[in-house]
Specification:
The chain has about 675 residues and is of the alpha+beta class. The two termini are about 50 Å apart.
Length: about 675
């Protein structure tokens, strides 16, 4: 070795300049974080001029994988570097291949003598490498800057919920660039079953977004592994956080990491999707959150959902796990090239972290090309039959008579997979992407695709029943939780003579994923409907009728069944009624500047006819502040307005969202938000 002081006295990774050029400055300004397929420069400082005939070698280490950086741009896409000397300083430009492994690299700089001895070695430097959707040779390349700003760089999003005919929006803080979120994303990868089983093979496969995204869908849920979130679809949630309380992904990821990879309680589909979107955007894979309304969960893979009811319209729970129709279901789509599949499967891929069915033995789902779903190509990996059924299954209702005989009472080919939604790139409004998933409902092409998909699974589709002379429909206003409201059931007689019939109306509380809770009200009446006329029957639902049984999703399902001697089969129709909630009013007055204290004000009025106890506001926002709780003192009386305020110092400039959640004993899941423009100092 040369003198103890060494010639290389400083390695400057130029994090500020590189991170700005690689669009990672939001993640960190001090550490070097770069994107693959794009060069970056570092400088070496020497105590003396560079010795003649000596040369530099660079070696990268990624876990147990060693990579020698070539001196010239040789054949084959490999790591290489070029150098430019000036006085006592040298600029090195490193070039990574567009299919490099993502992760944390340790960089060793070796000074070599003419006879190949190591004269000096410095290896205290490291950097992170991410996917690069700006690089045309990267498998995640997306050629539209406005899409990249939304699907990689935007830390705020909107999740659509409710029902297909009453869509609500929930602001969500993805926060993919918040402090240490990137480190936690790599920690998620490091704790997968594959990484724990064979870390070297796992590391080498991290160059592939198909592999990485599939691992993430397995790891965001905690079924079978050290995953991030545990799912729970009904109360109690007392030993954790109720799914509707979350307003963003960051507290969930932080809690998982701080608890030594022990699962955070609790998530439901939109929470799983929100966390998945955060991790994939952070790693550099363009990702958007999707909501499918009237989403089918087809357990047996026959492309139809079979629902069994008793003659009194009670849901029959079988011993086996059953098909279900969810009011809405959330997953994500990520943009990538599918080199593992035939052509025409690139682009958006469905990825679903909600644990529903096993895929190759694991609770994960995707990536599945959206184009394969639209064309009914169910042999394409991964999980195409399951995703196809989510947006296309037919629903068949059966009444099981006391003697065990089944009678088919309704075949519904049109209500699954409606208003498939994502946040628009052009602002905070909904974009409908249903036509990416399927041809127009009822069109010849749509049925052809269904037959093709069904044919693959040797399924006979049910031909649509012709309408009889009696028709049944349900109408309702958009009721507010806490009020009394009417449901109107209309019986229309298209026949030429008067008809006598028995009408049963049942209102029951359900969760958004169709867990049947309890009955709220039932009414059976005899009706006479004159020829070519209609008869209306009113089911009045009082707050006291539904408050006892309604879930935190504030959802009522009304079924109406009509039995008439003239009709061969009973007629049934169903409506899902979402009870809307009030909003929290959020205001942030004045000019807002980085690291300067600002005060936000929140207020909320109790809409219920009863007092609320244990009120608490939770406030968070990417670049603004981490999740903070404010307790409300005392009871909130009916009609009373309660206000709170919170002072904080914004951490990063830009357009930010401040999100607020209000919870209490009787009213939960009340949200509000404000857009905050944070100016530079």
């Amino acid at each position: 070795m040369a003198n103890n002081k060494g010639l290389i006295i400083d390695v400057d990774l130029r994090s500020h300049e590189n991170n700005l050029a690689h669009r990672t400055r939001e993640i960190d300004q001090e550490r070097l974080i770069v994107r693959r397929g794009q060069p970056f420069s570092i400088t070496l400082q020497f105590s003396d001029s560079f010795p003649p005939k000596h040369h530099l070698e660079l070696v990268l280490q990624l876990d147990k994988v060693l990579i020698k950086v070539q001196k010239e741009h040789g054949a084959g896409a490999k790591w290489w570097f070029s150098q430019h000397a000036a006085q006592d300083e040298m600029l090195l430009t490193l070039h990574s291949p567009a299919d490099a492994i993502i992760g944390q690299y340790h960089l060793a700089v070796l000074m070599m003598s003419p006879d190949g001895r190591i004269v000096e070695r410095t290896d205290k430097n490291s950097f992170h490498l991410l996917f690069n959707p700006w690089c045309k040779d990267d498998a995640v390349y997306l050629p539209d800057e406005s899409l990249l700003q939304e699907y990689v760089m935007n830390e705020d999003g909107i999740i659509y919920m409710g029902s297909w005919d009453n869509i609500n929006s929930l602001p969500w803080n993805f926060g993919q660039f918040e402090d240490y979120v990137m480190d936690i994303c790599f920690e998620v990868l490091d704790n997968s079953k594959e990484a724990l089983k064979n870390s070297e093979m796992d590391i080498e496969r991290r160059s592939d977004p198909v592999y990485v995204s599939r691992i993430i869908t397995a790891m965001v849920n905690s079924n079978d592994d050290r995953g991030v979130l545990r799912g729970r679809w009904h109360e109690p949630y007392s030993d954790g956080v109720a799914p509707h309380r979350w307003t963003g992904s960051v507290p969930i990821l932080q809690q998982w990491s701080e608890a030594g990879t022990s699962a955070v309680k609790y998530g439901q589909c939109w929470v799983f999707a929100g966390v998945t979107c955060t991790v994939l955007r952070c790693l550099g894979i363009p990702t958007r959150l999707i909501t499918n309304f009237s989403s089918a969960h087809d357990v047996d893979g026959n492309l139809s959902l079979d629902f069994l009811l008793t003659e009194s319209l009670e849901h029959i729970d079988g011993k086996d796990r059953q098909d279900s129709s969810w009011n809405f279901h959330c997953w994500v789509e990520s943009w990538m090239r599918r080199d593992d599949l035939p052509k025409a499967n690139d682009g958006w891929q469905v990825l679903d972290s909600t644990p529903q069915e096993r895929s190759d033995g694991e609770f994960c789902c995707g990536p599945c090309p959206v184009t394969a779903i639209k064309e009914g190509n169910l042999g394409i990996k991964y999980d195409a039959p399951f995703v196809f059924a989510e947006v296309n299954a037919d629903i068949i209702y059966w009444i099981v008579k006391q003697n065990g005989q089944r009678q088919k009472i309704r075949v519904d080919q049109e209500s699954v997979g409606k208003n498939i939604s994502t946040k628009s790139v052009h602002g905070d409004h909904r974009e409908d992407v249903t036509l990416h998933y399927k041809y127009p409902e009822g069109s010849k092409k749509e049925r052809e695709v269904y037959e093709k998909a069904g044919h693959r699974l040797t399924v006979l589709t049910n031909k649509k029943a012709e309408p009889g002379q009696l028709q049944l429909s349900i109408k309702h206003a958009k009721p507010v939780f806490g009020t009394d409201f009417d449901v109107i059931v209309k019986v229309r007689n298209e026949g030429g003579r008067d008809t006598h019939a028995q009408l049963t109306m049942v209102a029951m509380a359900v969760t958004y994923n169709s867990l049947h809770l309890e009955e709220c009200k039932r009414q059976t009446v005899s009706v006479t409907v004159p020829a070519h006329k209609a008869h209306k029957e009113v089911l009045r639902l009082h707050y006291d009728d539904y408050v006892k049984c309604v879930s935190e999703h504030h959802l009522i399902r009304v079924k109406a069944l009509l039995k008439a001697p003239e009709e061969n089969e009973p007629i049934m129709t169903i409506a899902n009624i979402s009870l809307s909630l009030p909003e929290v009013l959020v205001q942030v007055p004045g000019r807002v500047t980085v690291q300067k204290q600002v005060t936000a004000y929140f207020s909320f009025t109790n809409p219920l006819p009863v007092p609320l106890k244990g009120g608490v506001f939770t406030v968070e926002g990417a670049g603004l502040l981490s999740a903070t709780k404010i307790n409300v003192n005392g009871d909130i009386l009916p009609g009373q307005k309660v206000s709170a305020k919170l002072s904080f110092s914004p951490m990063r400039a830009g357009v930010r969202k401040l999100l607020v959640d209000f919870d209490s004993d009787r009213l939960k899941n009340v949200k509000g938000h404000a857009t905050v423009v944070v100016h530079k100092k």
